[in-house]
Amino acid sequence: MRRAEQTPEHAILIQRYLDFLRLERRYSDNSVKAAQRDLLLIINPPQQVTPTALKSILAQRHANGAAPASLARVASSWRGFFKYLLNNSVIEIDPTLGLKTPKLPRSLPKAVGVDALAALLALPLPQEFRFAQAHVLIELLYCTGLRISEALMLRAEALNGSTELRVIGKGNKARIVPVVDTLQARLREFVEPRQRHLLKHGRGQETSLFVSAKGQALTVRQAQRDIANHAANCGLGQHLHPHMLRHSFGSHLLQGTQNLRAVQELLGHASIASTQVYTALDFDHLSTVYDNAFPRAK
Asked: Which InterPro entries match (predicted)?
C-alpha cells in the first residue's frame, strides 16, 4: 500500500505519541517501532480520519494476506494512538470506536514434560562451550520462568551464588525470582568453562553472563539455535524453543501449587488473565485436585 506524505503536524503528533510510549509507558524499542509502522498506515491527519477509512485499510491488508494477529495488532496501535489524542483534546471523537478485527484463535502454550526435562538436565555439561552454555540456559529458563531476553540481560554477578535474581521485564518492570539450589550449583559449575572461553578470546572482563563464540554478549537468535541444537543432541525428541521452557515453568509450578497469583508474580505477568491460560494445560490434574480437596466433590 502506497503511503502518502505526512503533514508536519501529523508527523509531530505521531512522534509525541511514540515518545509517550517509550518514556512514560516504558515500551520496548521493538514495540515502539511496531506502533510506528502501524500508525504510518494512516494517510490522513488524525482529525480527518473516519471509522470507514480505518475499516478500509484493515480490509485491504486482509485481502493482501495479513494474518488475524497482525490485523489485531494494527487495530490495537490505532486505538492507543486515538485514545491518547482524545485525552489530550486533539480530537473530539475516537474513530476506532466499534472497530472490529477477526477473532483470534485461542492458542495454548506448549510445555515440555517433567520427566523429559529432568532427564535432559541430569546430564553433565558438554565439553563444547556453546552447548555447555545452552545447557545452563535451559536450566535457568526452566527453573526461573525467565523470558530469553531477560536471561540474556543478566550480568556475570549472577554467578556469585546469590539466592535470588533481580530481573528487568516487559515495560521496564523489575521483579525478583528465586534461585533454587540445583540452579545455583549449575551456575557455579559454569564459572570455569565460561572464564576459560573468555580468556581464549581475550575478553576476561565481559560483564554479560551469557556470551557468544567470540566472547561478546550472546544474541537471542544464537541462544535459540544453541538451545534447539543441544536439546536435539540430547535426544529430547521435540524442537525446544526458549519460550517453551517458560511455559513449562508456569505449567509445572501451577500443577504443584495451584497458586495462580504466585505463578503470575514469578512470570511477571501484568494481568492474571495472561497466567490463566496455564490452567488449561492440564485440566485432568486440576480436576483431580478439585475432587480430592473440595468437600462437596466427595
From this structure: CB, DNA_brk_join_enz, Integrase-like_cat_sf, Integrase_catalytic, Integrase_recombinase_N, Integrase_SAM-like_N, Tyrosine_recombinase_XerCD
175-222 tens-digit pLDDT: 888 899 999 999 999 999 999 999 998 887 789 999 999 999 999 999
| 243 catalytic per annotation | yes
Q: What is the mean pLDDT of residues 62-89?
A: 92
Residue of 22, 55, 62, 243 marked active site: 243
Q: How far apart are CA 259 and CA 264, in angstroms?
A: 9
Q: Look up cell 500500500; give the residue.
A: 1
* 114-242 to CATH, choices 1.10.1040.50, 1.10.443.10, 2.40.50.140, 1.20.810.10: 1.10.443.10
Q: Provide the residue type at 93 as one letter.
A: I
Concatenated DSSP letters of 7-18: PHHHHHHHHHHH
- Is 246 considered catalytic here? yes
Q: CA nearest 213: which of 120, 134, 292, 103?
A: 134
